[in-house]
Amino acid sequence: MGKPILSLDFDGVCHVYTSGWKGPDIIPDDAVPGLFEFLERTASFFDIQVFSARSNLPGGIQAMQAWFAQQHEKWCRETGREKEDLPI
Fold this sequence. Notes:
2 strands
């Protein structure tokens, strides 16, 4: 049997969402503080899945994937961690 699924909402849980809705493919805000530390700690226990209303809209999934890649890279630079694959 696999790991249990942990579902995270994207807007307001993964990114701070202070700018509000700008469209499915426009995500101007940074990650919620502690997001990547949380993902690191929980990935060995859960199959982490991110969901959003953006997922059903053109460009939404690609925008979230690009946002995660950019934010993860930024976090790695700021913390001095080596870039590894995201656990999501």
